[in-house]
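Worked example 2:
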Amino acid sequence: MDTFTTLWNRLQSRCPAAGPALSQQLIQDSFNQLAERRQWSWLMKPGAFFPANLYQTGTVDVTPGLFTVSGTGTAWTVAMVGIQIRIGGIGSSYPTYTITQVLSPTSLVMDQPWTGPTLTGQQYQIFQCYFNVPSDFNYFYSLINPTNNYRLWTNCTEADFDRCDAQRANSGPSFGAAFYGYTATYLGTIDPVLQVRGSGAVPVSTTGSGYSFPANGTFTVEITTSGASGAATFQWKFGSGAYTTAVTTDVNPIDLAYGVQVYFPVGTYVIGDTFIINVTAGVLSGVPRYELWPRPIATPYVYPFLYVARHDDLSDTNPVLPEFIARRGDVVLEMALACCARFPGTDHDHPNIYYDLSLADRHQIAADKMVNELETQDDNVGMKNLTWANSMEYAPSPWLDGSYLQSHAWPYAGW
């Protein structure tokens, strides 16, 4: 059973001129080429989408340009982070937003600012229509609805959904999944405290997790009672919001909001002294996410799927090869030796004695033969690349049944 370590050491022993670094790189590259060559059985993995339950208790208030939503009679929880909210509910003329934070049972933050008019006492729905895939996801092999006994379409686009249902007014069992974008992690930066009024001691800004609000902003901190750290008090606000009630200073970090903290070192703080902390939003792209359509909000559904995973990169800290390949590590070695035989050396003073283009061809022929043998073995394990002649392009399904085709005169060859 070969590992990354044994393979690159075997390569270096055959071709000393390659050295450890190049030997490791060639083994990594050869394994990557092999892993990406086909839909290997050892790359197949299961997963499932579990839509969140529909929640629509209470009403909401929203203001143009703001990311925050205020609720009345709501009981929002952190379990709602990452799922969707639609003001006015399904079929409304307003966009669907993703919840990035739940600040309290009556306050949450969306991933984009509200673009509609000012609304108060408005109905809403919290549900899930965008679903994250596993971190090693490459592409779907099959996605099914076992409740209604059919396979979902996975070769759809957002444009297809827009053409069928731009308003996203349909809900119920989903028929298709389309790539929507990538998940976002909000990890912005926090500037040092800047004193804008007074001459007393200055607090220090810090964070335990990074700035998590999706837009730039400014925190304002004002001393409300003079004294030493632990005795003086302060109030704070974010942006144009209202000041909080008085908070006692402390030499340990005090949470403000959105991951921002402040602490007050030993010193004397003077009433009226004012400080600002500028914060800059930062967004990191995560895993792909897919929209299911129609939106599965009426009944709890489960959508199991099989997917082809991306292989793990080899390294000294992750040296284990997939068992299917580890038993035939000579395949990777032959591919790497073919590369070594094409490497003339770093310069004239350091030639590669293994350099021989005819030898490279022999290694490549041997590697191709071994790969073909591996592919045959893999087909014996699990047949996947199988097509049927004269298959029905529009086989009956919940989406494209006879009545649908009769009522739509244009061909829908892309589905």
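The helical segments are 4-14, 19-35, 158-165, 323-326, 329-341, 357-381, 402-407. The chain has seven helices and 28 strands.
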